[in-house]
């Protein structure tokens, strides 16, 4: 092996070592990004579950409110009917 070939080989080995170091750094960064993404995903999943529970609770409250409004409407109608009957009695007595 000639000295020139050894120089070329040494240069290429240096380049490969540099490339490996760069790739290791990128790998570490990507692993960190992956871990952060996983944590964010878990946080998002918890938030979704909380929002789904809140949505269920709101649906129950909304349903209860609709039932209460229906009851109020029925009471209003009955009161109006009773007032109409009282008006009839007043006209008959008058």
Describe the fold and architecture.
The protein has one helix at residues 3-93. It is mainly α and 94 residues long. The mean pLDDT is 95. Helix content is 97%, strand content 0%. The radius of gyration is 40 Å and the shape is rod-shaped.
Number of helices: 1
Helical residues, percent = over 70%
Record field, number of beta strands: 0
Question: What spatial form do the alpha-carbon principal axes imply?
Answer: rod-shaped
Structural class of the helix and strand makeup? mainly alpha
Secondary-structure map:
Elements: H1 3-93
Summed up, what is this model?
The chain is an all-alpha fold.
Descriptive keywords:
mainly alpha; rod-shaped; 1 helix; single chain; 94 residues
């Amino acid at each position: 092996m000639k000295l020139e070939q050894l120089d070329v080989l040494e240069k290429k080995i240096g380049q490969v070592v540099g490339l490996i170091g760069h790739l290791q750094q990128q790998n570490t960064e990507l692993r960190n990004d992956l871990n952060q993404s996983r944590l964010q995903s878990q946080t998002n999943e918890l938030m979704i579950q909380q929002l789904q529970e809140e949505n269920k609770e709101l649906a129950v409250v909304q349903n209860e409110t609709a039932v209460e409004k229906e009851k109020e409407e029925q009471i209003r109608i009955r009161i109006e009917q009773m007032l109409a009957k009282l008006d009839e009695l007043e006209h008959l007595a008058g």
